[in-house]
Amino acid sequence: MTLTENTQSTAAFHNENEVTLTTENAPRCKHCGEEMVKMAVPREANFNTAFFWVCFNDDCAYFKEGWAWMMEKYNVNASYRHRIDPSNGQEGPLAVWSFDALKDRIFN
Ligand SMILES: [Zn+2]
Known about the structure:
The protein has 108 residues and is an alpha+beta fold. It has one domain (27-107). The protein is built from two helices and five strands; from the N terminus they run H-E-E-H-E-E-E. The longest helix has 23 residues, at 2-24. The structure holds zinc ion (ZN). Zinc ion (ZN) is lined by residues 29, 31-32, 34, 55, 57, 60, 62, 82. The site of zinc ion has 9 residues, from loops.
């Protein structure tokens, strides 16, 4: 009985610790080194998280090169920003259609 209780409390503490790490410490963008910021995820988007870490640096190489790539591949005037999902740590592109797109969703 005592052993089970100990295991459970350790697991709970571990989880709590992980959440603290992923929500409070802003990661740095691996493309430009800038601190990433929180962007609110729309509720209807059905993601497992309330926010994404996103690099909104307009000088980020990933974002700057994205315009040409999207035009070449999809013939659309759009780009993408580096994004991390804090619920599972997965990285990926976040499509944007202008320099200011989605910036109104940034919060602290
Ligand atoms: Zn960046």
